[in-house]
Structure formats: C-alpha cells, structure tokens
C-alpha cells in the first residue's frame, strides 16, 4: 500500500513532544503544537495526477482509543493543520490525520489555483477523501486492527470539507462535526467580494469603518439584548433574527444628534444592506446577509477589503485567468459570474448538495454556527439545514441523525461575547489558553464526546454547555456558561445565577 505514497517522514516520539514544529515553512499553520503524548508520526505525499500532489500526515498515539479522526482546514489553506490535530490526539486518544489540500499557502491566498485544474480538484474534495482512505489503511497497518469509528472535526472550510465528504463519500466517516461551514463556496465568495467591494467600498460615501460599527453595535445591543424573546440583558443577543434594529437615532440629521458619533444616511443604508440577504438583480437568492450584532464584534470582516478567496476564486477559477490579476466586478458582472460558477463549479468545490440520505442512514451529522459570525454569514449554516429538510421531504426523524446548534454571541468558529468554548474543533493546549476546550470533560460540555456518544451509543445531544473564559484564557477561570440548544430551540433565562448554565432552559420560541 505504501508503494503508492511518497513517504517523507516516519518517526516514533516515544516520550511525546513538548513543543512540535516542522523543519519547513507552513504559513497557514505556523503555531507550535504543545504537550503531545507519545505517538508515531507518518508524513507522505499522494500523487493525484501528473501535475498535482497532496501532502498529509497521520499521527497515531501509543495509547489509542480505537478511534480515527480527520481535522479540516481554514479558508484556502494550504498546509497540514498541525495545531488542530492536537485536540483529537491529546484529549481523545484518537489517531488523527490532516491534509495540506494540495498546496502550501495561507487561508486568504488563492494564487495556487492559477493554471492548476488538478490542484483545484485536490482542493475541492480529492485531497480530503484520499487522505481519509490512505490514513485509515495506515492506522490499520500500524495497530494491526482497523479503527472502530471515524470522525470528521472541522470548522469554516473544515465545515465545508466535512459536508463534502457526507455528500460524496458517505462511507468515509461515522460522525461529522461541521461548524460555520463555507459550504456554498461559489455564492459565499460572491457575497464576501460584493459586500466589501460594492456595498461597503472604501471610496463610497456610505463607507463604514470599525468605529462606525462600534457605534452601531452598541445601539443594536440596546435594542436587541434583553428585549422581546431575549430573556436576559447580558451582552449576548440570543436570537438576532427576532430583533429588527432601527438606526434612525444615529442619523446626523436626527434631533440632538451626537456630531462625533453620528452616521450619514448613506452609511445607515450601508448597514441595512450588510444585514439584508443578497439577491441577484433577477431576484435569485445568493446568500444571507450578516446577523444583527455581528458588526459589533472586533473581527467583523466587512471593512472594504474582500477576503482573499472571494476575488481569487472568480479570477482564477471562474474566469480562469492564467496570470495574477486584480479582480474587479460591478453588480451586473457579479450576476453573470455567479451564473457561470453555478454552471461549472470549478474544482467541484461546492458542498451544498442537500441529498444526504445515504450518509444520514448510517452516520451522525452535527452542524453548528455562531449567531454573530463575522466572516461567513450565520444564515448559510441555517439555510443548508433547511435545504436538507426540504430535499428529504421534512422527515420527522431527522434529529435521529442530523442536529444543528446555533450559538448566540459567537463569531466565526470562536471568539465573541458568547460561550464559545465547548470541546469542538480547533482545541488548544492549556499552555496556549485552552481555547475551544470545555470546562468539564464530559458529553454535556464537550461536543466531540457528545458526538462519540451519539455514534457509539445512539444517545443524541439535546444541548451543549459552552463557556466563556476570563480574558478568553481558561487558566483565568470561567466568566460564564450557557446551554447551546438544538435548533430551532433557544436558551431562556429562568432565574438564578445569570452566569450558570443551569439558570437557562432550551425552549421553542417561534
Ligand atoms: Ca441576551
């Protein structure tokens, strides 16, 4: 089996590794990986065509749980995701693998797409699938027995990759955790380009900058937090869709306007357009807008400079430009390019197929999204859930195999005022702040343990308890805990300590 691979690394770390780094540059994943248990490491290339190859690594702990996992990537990266391999191997004793998706580069750099039709396919789906197939074989060879269960653990592009596996290779994984998925790649890239370059372009009179968003975000909190169905004023908007902010009082024309913190009518219009769904000029739905409150988070991405994958996707895949070019398009041209992208799906990168009955008949799918996502509008995850329901004709037993969690006050995959640490993808060692690890190592506070229980014992998670740590560092202690509810339920405050999860219950509101 190994003859098909170009192996570049086989090493047994019998004493574990305190600080793992590579001897080559990984611009997408430069962070060191700390406190690894004893494991065997294998790194190799898969030659996927005469003009493309895929790098992957599989790390196999000496003390093995019998489980296999793969972690996903972010944006257009571009590198074996060593930092994210830490959680599965260190916390769950899983054999874990990751791929570079066929190239080495940062999450925002799409120049690898240039003149690389095979590399585009590697990025679209092939790198992940083949890495899964080969890694499972390597695991079986190493332990002399196959892994009993296989798990996908990813957020953002990692969510897209997990859903692509569900759609194309339903046998690869038994449990798939797909967070804040970039699943409708063509439409998402259209949205990130358009919302920055057209709606909030730097040279337009309605341009909004960070300090404008601070002013707006503060008013949105006043109008949405602790109002209506939001049962507690805690700086977290429970359901941003249940609130329709009115920015009129921020207008410089309003009576008694604060001249240093007011907005022009053009700026107010820009904010409403950022919140609104995006449609082509013929009325076709393209993608959701951002949720109310996302603008208030520091990482809000609509700053007039489109995130790299947007323009690079259209320049090098849809238009198929053969040299580095600056991408520019108006609304009419974007309409045309979206149609071409829908028709051609270059690299087969879209992961929006809702017909996933083959997977749901045998596996478990857990999707989740922060309701204040600052990079990928939260609505995309909700949209896909509804698309699946519709495609499968609204099955009553959908929750037996597919559940979605919506997490208030959480930005893209993590961050924000919400309780975004719940043992999901992207966990870090305590020496690195313990990001994404839960307060307790049990299925109530840990998404991966919840998934394991669901797959292996048939016990589905009804809620997950997330935490926000003081200064976003677990070593400082816990600031607050919140239950995250299975959609469409939301957490309702029932009285008692507002920072304790037990003071809330998941209820159907709408
Ligand atoms: Ca609230």
Shape category:
globular
Order of helices and strands: EEEEEEHEHEHEHHHEEHHHEHEHEEEE
Tell how many strands the DSSP assignment holds. Answer: 17
Helical content stands at: 25-40%
Total DSSP helices: 11
Quote the beta fraction: 15-25%
What hetero molecules are in the model?
calcium ion
Measured on Cα atoms, how large is the radius of gyration?
23 Å
Structural class: alpha/beta
Please tell me the total number of domains: 3
Ranges with pLDDT <50 over ≥5 residues? none
Main beta sheet: 11 strands, mixed
Overall pLDDT: 97
Cα(first) to Cα(last) distance is 54 Å
Protein name: Carboxylic ester hydrolase
GO molecular function: feruloyl esterase activity; metal ion binding
Pfam families: Tannase (PF07519)
Family: Belongs to the tannase family.
Describe this structure in a few short sentences:
The protein is α/β, with parallel strands linked by helices and 510 residues long. The chain contains eleven helices and 17 strands. The chain folds into three domains: 147 residues, no CATH class; 190 residues, no CATH class; 161 residues, no CATH class.
Question: How would you describe this structure to a colleague?
Answer:
Strands 1-4-5-7-6-8-9-12-13-15-14 form an eleven-stranded mixed β-sheet, with helices on both faces. α4 (185-199) packs antiparallel against α8 (331-344). The protein has helices at residues 82-92, 117-143, 157-168, 185-199, 210-224, 265-275, 309-318, 331-344, 357-360, 379-391, 447-457, and strands at 5-13, 17-20, 33-36, 39-49, 52-61, 67-71, 95-99, 149-155, 175-179, 278-279, 285-287, 364-370, 402-407, 463-469, 478-486, 489-493, 504-508. The chain is of the alpha/beta class and 510 residues long. It has eleven helices and 17 strands. The protein folds into three domains: 1-147, no CATH class; 151-183 and 354-510, no CATH class; 188-348, no CATH class. β8 (149-155), α3 and β9 (175-179) form a beta-alpha-beta unit. The site of calcium ion (CA) has 9 residues, from loops. Residues 225-226, 230, 232-234, 236-238 line the site of calcium ion.
């Amino acid at each position: 089996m190994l003859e098909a691979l170009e192996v570049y690394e086989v090493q047994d770390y019998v004493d574990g590794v305190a600080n793992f780094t590579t001897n080559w540059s990984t611009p997408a994943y430069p962070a060191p990986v700390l406190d690894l248990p004893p494991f065997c490491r294998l790194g190799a290339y898969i030659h996927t065509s005469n003009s493309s190859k895929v790098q992957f690594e599989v790390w196999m702990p000496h003390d093995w749980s019998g489980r296999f996992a793969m972690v996903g990537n972010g944006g257009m990266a571009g590198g074996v995701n060593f930092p994210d391999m830490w959680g599965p191997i260190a916390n769950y004793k899983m054999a874990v693998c990751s791929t570079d998706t066929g190239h080495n580069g940062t999450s925002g750099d799409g120049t690898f797409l240039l003149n690389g039709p095979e590399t585009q396919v590697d990025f679209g789906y092939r790198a992940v699938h083949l890495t899964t197939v080969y890694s499972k074989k390597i695991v079986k060879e190493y332990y002399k027995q196959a892994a009993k269960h296989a798990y996908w653990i990813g957020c953002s592009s990692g969510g897209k990759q997990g859903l692509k596996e569900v759609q194309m290779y339903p046998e690869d994984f038994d449990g798939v955790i797909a967070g804040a998925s970039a699943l409708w790649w063509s439409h998402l890239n259209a949205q990130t380009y358009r919302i920055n370059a057209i709606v909030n372009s730097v040279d337009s009179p309605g341009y909004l900058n960070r300090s404008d968003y601070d002013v707006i975000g503060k008013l949105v909190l006043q109008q949405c937090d602790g109002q209506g169905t939001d049962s507690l004023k805690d700086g977290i908007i429970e359901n941003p869709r249940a609130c329709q902010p009115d920015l009129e009082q921020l207008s410089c024309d309003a009576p008694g306007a604060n001249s240093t913190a007011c907005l022009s009518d053009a700026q107010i219009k820009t904010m409403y357009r950022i919140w609104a769904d995006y449609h082509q000029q013929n009325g076709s739905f393209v993608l959701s807008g951002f949720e109310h409150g996302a603008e208030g988070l520091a990482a809000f991405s609509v700053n007039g400079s489109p995130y790299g994958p947007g323009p690079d996707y259209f320049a090098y895949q849809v238009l198929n430009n053969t040299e580095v070019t600056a991408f520019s398009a108006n609304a009419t041209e974007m309409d045309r390019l979206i149609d071409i992208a829908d028709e051609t799906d270059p690299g087969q990168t879209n992961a929006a197929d809702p017909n996933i009955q083959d997977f749901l008949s045998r596996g478990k799918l857990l999707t989740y999204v922060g309701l204040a996502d600052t990079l990928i509008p939260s609505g995309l995850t909700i949209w896909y859930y509804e698309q699946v329901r519709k495609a499968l004709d609204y099955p009553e037993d959908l929750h037996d195999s597919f559940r979605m969690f919506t997490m208030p006050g959480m930005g893209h995959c993590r961050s924000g005022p919400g309780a975004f640490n719940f043992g999901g993808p992207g966990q870090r060692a305590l020496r690195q702040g313990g990001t994404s690890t839960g307060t307790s190592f049990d299925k109530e506070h840990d998404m991966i343990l919840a998934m394991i229980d669901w797959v292996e014992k048939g016990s589905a998670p009804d809620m997950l308890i997330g935490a926000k740590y003081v200064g976003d560092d677990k070593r400082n202690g816990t600031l607050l805990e919140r239950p995250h509810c299975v959609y469409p339920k939301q957490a309702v405050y029932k009285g008692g300590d507002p920072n304790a999860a037990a003071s809330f219950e998941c209820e159907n509101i709408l």
